[in-house]
Structure formats: structure tokens, C-alpha cells
Amino acid sequence: MKAFHHIARTTMLATISLLTFAGCENTIDPIADEGKDTFAIYGYLDMRSSLQKVRVELLRPTVLSEPLSVDGYQVSSIDQNDGTFQIWKDSMVVLSNGGVGNLFVSKFQPQLGHVYSLIVSRNGVTGAEAIVELPKQPEVFVEPSVGDSLDLSQRIALLGATDKPTAVYLLYEVIPPDDSGVKVIRVAYGDPGAASARGWEFDVNLTSDRYVIMNGLGLNIKTKGVIVRRVSMEMTLFSKEWGSIGKETNLKRAHGFLASVGVFEHTWQLDSVTLGKMGFLNGQIPN
Amino acid sequence: MSFAWQAQSTDLPIKAPSLFGRVLDAELRTSLPGATVAVMQKGNIIGGGITNSNGKYAIEGITNGLYVVQTSFLGYETQSDTLQLPRTEPYDVLLQPTRTHLEEVLVESLRNDANKFVVGLETIRAEDLSRVPMPDVSYDLAGYLLTLPGVVSTGDRGGQLFIRGGTPTQNLVLVDGMRIFQPFHIVGFYSAFPADIISYADVYAGGFSAKYGGRISSVIDIKTVNGSKEKLTYSASIAPFLSGFNVSIPVRPGDTSLIISARESIIDRVSPTLLGQDLPFRFGDRYLKLHSYLNETSSLTVTALATSDEGNLETTSDPLIPTFRKSTWKNRAYGGKYQYIPPENAVMTELSVYYSSLESRYRPTRDELRTSDVSDLNMNIGFVYLLGPSQVNFGIYGNTNFFDYKLGSLGTEGHSGVTSVGSYFESQFNLGKKFRLEPGVRLEIFSRGLKNTVAPRGRVTFLPGGTGSHHQFSLAAGVYHQQIVGLNNEQDVSDVFTIWSASPNNTPVPKAVHLIGGWKGRPYPWLELTLEAYRKNLSDISFPVFGNAINKVAEFSKVDGFAQGVDAKVEVTRQDFFFSLSVSTSKVEYHMEAQRAGGVFRPNFGQATLLEETTFNPPHDRREQVNAMAQYRLGSNKLSIRWQYGSGLPFTQVNGYYADLRDSIDPRNSDYVTSVGKPFVSRAELYDARLPTYHRLDITLERSFDLAGAELTAMVGVINVYDRNNIFEYNIFTGSRIDQLPIIPSIGIRVDVR
Questions:
Q1: Is residue B190 in some structural domain?
Q2: Which of A70, A104, A133 is the last residue of a domain?
Q3: Rounded distance, CA B546 to CA B492, Å?
Q4: Chains A and B: how many Cβ contacts under 8 Å?
Q5: CATH number of the CATH domain containing B57
Q6: pLDDT (tens digit per residue) in A134-179
Q7: ipTM of this complex
Q8: What's the domain count of chain B?
Q9: Minimal Cα–Cα distance from B603 to chain A, Å?
Q10: Tell me: the pLDDT tens digits for B402-420?
Q11: Going edge to edge, which strands form the sheet with B198-204?
């Protein structure tokens, strides 16, 4: 009986102690400390434009919260190749649903192969950071043309390139026989070719290009006397981030997506024999 | 009945025995192999023996003195004599066949080891349930389960129980052998069946034997009462949460009874007035059981159970929270069981056929409906050989499951079935006076795609002082597989929608290895102490993947892990006073290898999320838990008090929310500049934070009145006496928390006519 009373007393005391202790705290902090000053960044540096744009949003505490103000935050960029420092301008943009978003803009044209740091900071303290590299300028190797006038082609190799070039155009600068002036005919090649040991390779079909050129000039295919002054290739190159959306990130303390788009142009000379097979006259200007 | 076993052999000991002879059927004069002869003095068993195949027995080592010799055998009246031992003359015993039905005798015999300690097992008897305060004058198994150490609930709604690290879909719940897929009502106080029908429930928190299969965590095996075969009895109760009635009808007096029970909630109608807030939960159940003794050796049982639940678990007064997240589910279970016990053998043969199904519906948004149906057809032939204190169980079974699910906007649907056959074998026997061994094995063979499984299991019990020892030690181990898996979004406690299906073909099925050790001591007749330690190693468990998109849960990962812990319990039972205190400490940890997430029941699909290697504690990892329960009876008054404490459950903090613009970002245009995007969430470290602790005090006071031939019980009570704001869920849409039930005063009246 003595033991019973002892156990009853002990358990009662333990229960009261637990009750007292357990009642102290009853709050929940759903937002992690590291979530404060975390951002969402979306945009891309575009070599095709002289105005760069990026959407920057401070993470909201709830889904239904209004976007938080980014007043006091600064977005800047540094060209790590030449040290050029840009402070981006804060602006508001009207969204498609009538809401507003934070858009930062800066006037500059990024350069191929340059590495840029984008920094979101407040009072000099870096909040979020992203590093994006514009595509490197590929080395182009143009092989001699092969075939006859009915099937004439020329292989282009982008040495060391790992990414598929997109929006490839061949630009033929020509003078029609009526001497009406220099005209530029753009021949679209889309996203051509395939990866190879050398990099990326695709074929230019010179025979079919002739049809496009003559059609563009409004001439019969048998018309003689068209002079070719210059042949060049233009292509758009995407940074590696475009191929890994949602998989890898180049952002620190930020969610989102920041990539780059580069434009690359290369000019080369077609030899007289090739031009002859195409039915054109050689009026090329040496590079 | 429990005494030391001596090896059965046709070669009786050569040494002169203290007592020997034969045990015979008094009417047929045939020998009774397997009968038990116990030698007792002052209530203690001094020795004993089992008759061999010729009905002979011999007991040695009894010192000179006067003893009570008790002879018993299944199906016969137990006979006692006082004898002077040692005795040189044979002592032959003629046992009279029992007048009662053999099934009753056998069932009683199988369960008469009240003092037998089985590690991992808690046997809950009907009278135990009345110790738990409920918001209702009726009692319920669910409320009691929550007082057991190692049983964790994420809240008082949803009916999800986690047992020693296992998830709800890893628990096997049987009602008279029928598998119940969703065994708890939407309000977590209540089981899907009334307490009135429960005879007892065996709750195996792990280490369960070979006759149970298909789940890897725990077993809740509920046996229901047979109705009165002598007179009509009935009861009815009215209370705010649940009202119901129970009728037992002697259809054929002496032989056949019928129980009809029905319960229906009314809380959705009374909560605005009673609690000042909406509790839009509707639930109810219907139960029917026909039991008939066909003759003295056989019986037939037919059982049916239907349940329904409906409600919005995210109930809150916050107007910003959408109210359309609605869950409904319906259990259906039907079964028949035939038992036959031949009068000449202590062998029970049981043939059973069960069918059960679950229909689940869930609306995550107003326009989206997700459905999941599962059905289970089970046939089982089981044999129980009772050989004195030894026992052999053997069974063969066949099982067919059908699955049908459509996941609305997630775009996944499936319809499949899987059939399995198998067998189990388990036995119990004593090794000397101090050890009892219970080895077993379970075999299962599948119709397609899934690897056949062999699962060895076993248990050892050590009684340091032999029979009647005040201390018992037990160790259990086993291998468990779960081929039929249920997937639900464990990350969202208000989403209890579960998709059931077979594990994907040719992939490892979830598996667990249990090891449990324990001690049970009874230093005084009124004091019982229990201490158990356990470890469950888990592999190939499906766990939902956090996506960044809101309301997108269609991906699952495979994780390995473990659950381990120590449970301690003190129980004081006096005539008018009962007290129990259980304390648990545990840890559940999952480890995820780097992998690509899988779709619902598909190993891989399309743009599945790439997952990094990580280790985390899942949301049911409650580290500390305390349950204190007391009941005091004074005359016809009964005061019941329960206090529960649970340390905070893990949750994943968020860094915040943002508009994801990836779908609109395109190098060919600047659409992203004005795009609204999709709401995305940025999450912090997985389950790195803890919710506040949970604790609650419930008190009820009951008083019974005798009215002519009836008993009237009136109850007043308060649930959550000090109105603790226990968190149920944090709402990611609004940033507001949803708490569990507030202080709830309750009254109830019950009438029992016996």
C-alpha cells in the first residue's frame, strides 16, 4: 500500500510538471529564416537587344499575398571580362491580369563569351546573385563545296560547339543583272545539323539556295549575270541554361531562371568554281 | 491452464513418477491424447504433464504432500481431486464431455493466457474502453488506441493513426477477419464500428505472427461479440457527436443470435450552437452479425459492416480558406465464417470468406474530383491444433484485390487487379519451464509481376521464475512485406485521400524487418509495469515528393528508413481506481537516395523531378509521447480523466511563394515580362522544423441509474478542458493555422436493457 501511494504521488507530480512545461509554447513559424531576402529572378541577357530586362520578385509569405515591394533593393550587373558595372533601373510593369510586377532594365548589349554577374542587394549587402555566360564565339571551318550544279553543297563545322545553333540564316549579298543595286537575300536554315567529333556540323545546300535567291530577286532561274558580293551566316546561340530549365540553377539565394542569348555572324568567300556551278558571277569583296 | 510442458512421448520416464495414469472420455472410455494434468498446491502450479497418444501421462519430482490435481481437456469439464503424492497407484481420470459449444471452449482456451506477455501486443478488452473519456456516452476503440504508447495521430480529424513509425496504410485492421481499409471515422475519436460490438482487440504494434500478412507495420485484430442467445437486449444513446442503438435478438433461442447496430453523427447540426463554429463532418456506421451454433461442434457467422464519412478537414472560420476540399469515403465489408471442431480432437477448422471495399472521393478544388476504389476478396482455411499448452496454426488462403483510381487533373488513372495465394504456419511450445518459443513462416505467391515472398517470424518468451513468474521477458522478430500499397499525401494532413494499388511490377515491394524486446513485471497484484524497445527497418517505402507547384502531388519517391523507440507503461488497478501512465520516446528517419521521382504506381515517367539524396524525419516522427489516464468509481459514479502529451511533429518550413514564369519565358519574345505565371512555393530544409507540442485534457463524469430492468447512464464531460490550441494544419494559401477541436462540453444519455 505504501508503494502504491508513492507511485501515485510520483506520477501525479510528473503529470503536473509536464503539463506546466508543455503549456509554454504554442506558436509556429512557417517561414524559414533563410527565406527572408530570397528572390525570384526571371529573364535573359539578350545580345539582340540593347535593352536588357529582368523580373525580380521578393518571395511572398503566403500564396495569396500581394507582391512585396522591392524598394531599397538594387539590381546591378558586372561584366567580369571588362569590369563594366551597370546599375539597373527599377520599373513597374502591368501584368496580363492587371497586377503589377517589378521589372529591372539596363541599357547595354552583352558580348559573346562574356560572363556577367547579376546581383540583387540592399544597403550593399548581396541578397541574390546569378552568374550567366553568353555563348562563346564558335570557330567556323568551311569545307570546299562538293557536287555539281544539280546537287551542290558545302559543309560548315562549328569547331568545339556543344549546343545546337538555332535560327540559322545564310545571307547572300547580290547585285541583279539589271544593276538595280545591292540586295540581301536571307535563306532560312532553321536549327540544322548534328553534333560531331569536331563540334557541330551542317550542310549548306547551294543548289537550292540559288533557287531561293533567284526567286527573291524575281528572276528566272536561267537568268545569267547575278553577282555575288558577299556570303555570310547568322545564327542565334543559347546559353546552356536554356537546356536545363528546372534542373540546374545558376542562381544563389534565388529561384527562377536567368539565361542569355547570343548572336553570331560569320562571313566567308565562295570560290569562283563554286559560284560558277551556282550560275553566279564572282563579285566578292575580300574580308 | 498455464503450466510447464513436458515433452510428449510414447516412452514415459523410467524413473518412478510421482503421479501417473490415463485420461479417458467418461462416456466412450476412449483415451484423450493432449489432455493436461496439473499438480497444484495453495493455488500454485507445482508440476504438470500432457497425455501422450495413448492418453497416458506421468509427472515426476513431486515432494511428499497433499496436492490438488486438476485435469482438463478441450471440450470436457475440468476435474479436480485432492491427492496425497507421490502415489504408487495409477490415477486414471474420466472426463465428462462439456455441455457447452466447443467453439466457446476453444476460443476461451486460446485466449486464457491472460498473463502471457507477448511483446508488441496489447490486448484491449471491451471493459478497457470505458476508461477513456469521450465526447459521447458510448466508448470507442479509436479513443483507446490513442492512449497506447507509440500510437500517433496527426490530429483529431481524418482518422489517421501511425503506429510505431508505420503509416496508416501500413496497418492491417480486421473486424472478425474482414479487412477494413479505412477503419476510423473522419472525426478521429471514433472507429468505424461501435464499441458495443467489440469483444476484444489485439493490437500488434509490431512483431506480429505469420497468420497476419499484407501490411508491414501493425495489426489491429478486432473480434466482436456474439449476440445474446437467451433474451432480447438493446441499448440506445444520444450525444452531440454520435447517437446510436444496438439490438441483440435471439433469433433461435439458445442457438442463433442477431446483432444490429447503427450510429449516426449529429455534430454538423449541433456544432454551431454548441461550439459556436461549424464542424461539417458527417459519419455513421451500420453493423450486423448473425451467429448460430449449428450443433455442438460447428458454428456459422455472417457479418456485414457499412460505414460512411463526409467532410472538409480544413474546416476553419477563416473566410479566405476555400471550403470545397471535401473528402468522402465508404467502407463495405461482408463475410461468412464456418467453424468446426471434431469432438474427438482438439482441432478447430475454420473456413471463411470475406469481401471488403473502400470507395474514396476527394475534391481538392471545386471543379476537380479524384476517385479511388479498392476491393478485397479473401478466402481462408485455417486449422488450429491445441495440444495442451502447445499450439499449431496452419492455414492456406487466397486473395484477390481490384483497384480503380482516377486522379482528375493529375491525369493519372488506373484499373488493375492482383491475385495471390499463400499459406502460413506458426506454432507455440514450451522449452523447459522457462522458455516459450513461437516460430512461424508466411508464404505468398502472386498472379503477376510481384516477387513471391517468404517471411519468417518468431517470438521467444523467457520466464525467469518459471510458470507464475512475476517477470517475463519477450523477444520478437519478423520479416514483413506489403504488396498492396496505399499512397496518400502524407505531407498534407487535411488530405487523407488514399490511392490503393498493387506495387508496380518488377519493383521491390515495401518491406520491414521488426525486432522487439520487452519486459513485463507485476511486483504487486495491482501494479503492472511494461517496458518495450523496438526497431523496424524499412525499405522501398513510397513517400510523396514535394513539388514547387501548389496542389501538385503526383510524384513519389522510394525511401528506406527505420523506426525505433522505447515504450514504458505503468498500470495500477485497484477495485475502484485505475491509473495508467505510458511514456514513449521514438525516432523515425527516412533516407532517400538520389533518384528521379516516380508517378503514381509507375516507376518513372516523363519530366519527373530529379531528387537529391537526403535524410529526413517524416511528418509522423513524434519523439516523445505521454498518456496519463485515471478512472475513479464511487458507487454508481465514474470519473474518467485523460491527459495526452506529444512533442511537436516535423514540418517543412517555406522560404516563401513566387510566380513561376518558366512556361512563358521564350527567347523569341518578351512575354515573360507581363506574365502572371504560376504560384510556386520555395521550401526550406525538408522537415527541419517542428510544430508546437500537443497536449489535451479530457474529463467525463458518468452516473448510472437502475430503472426497472434497464440501466440509464448519464454523462457530462469536457473535451480539451483547458482549450489548448493544438495545431492541425498550417494553411499555405493564407498563412493561417487551423487548430484541432477547441474545448467541447458534452452531455449524453444511454439506456441499456439487458
A1: no
A2: A133
A3: 10
A4: 162
A5: 2.60.40.1120
A6: 988 889 999 999 999 889 999 999 998 777 788 899 999 999 998 7
A7: 0.80
A8: 1
A9: 19
A10: 999 887 766 677 888 889 9
A11: B121-125, B198-204, B218-224, B171-175, B178-179
Inform me whether the C-beta atom of residue A3 falls under 8 Å from chain B C-beta atoms. yes
- A93, A116, A133: which is the final residue of a domain? A133
Query: Is the pTM above the cut of 0.90?
Result: no
Please give the residue range of the domain that contains residue A118.
Answer: 34-133
Counting every residue written for chain B, the total comes to 754
Classify residue A3: in a domain, yes or no: no
Is residue A246, in this structure, part of any structural domain at all? no
- Return d(Cα A130, Cα A251) in angstroms, integer: 4
Q: Per the structure, how many domains does chain A have?
A: 2
Contact A95 B676 (CB under 8 A): yes
C-alpha cell at A121: 542587394
| Rounded mean pLDDT for each run of 10 residues along chain B, 754 residues in total | 32 64 81 83 78 83 87 81 87 78 57 63 86 82 87 76 88 94 87 88 92 93 88 87 91 90 88 76 94 87 95 60 72 94 78 95 80 94 83 93 82 82 93 90 84 92 82 94 77 69 77 95 89 95 77 73 95 90 95 77 53 89 93 92 91 88 85 89 87 91 87 91 85 72 86 81
Q: Do B655 and A59 touch (CB under 8 A)?
A: yes
CATH number at residue A92: 2.60.40.10
Of A30, A64, A245, the CB nearest to B654: A30
Residue B60 falls inside a structural domain:
yes
Question: What one-character-per-residue DSSP string does B12-60 give?
Answer: --SSPPSEEEEEEETTT--B-TT-EEEEEETTEEEEEEE--TTSEEEE-
CA distance B741 to chain A (A): 15
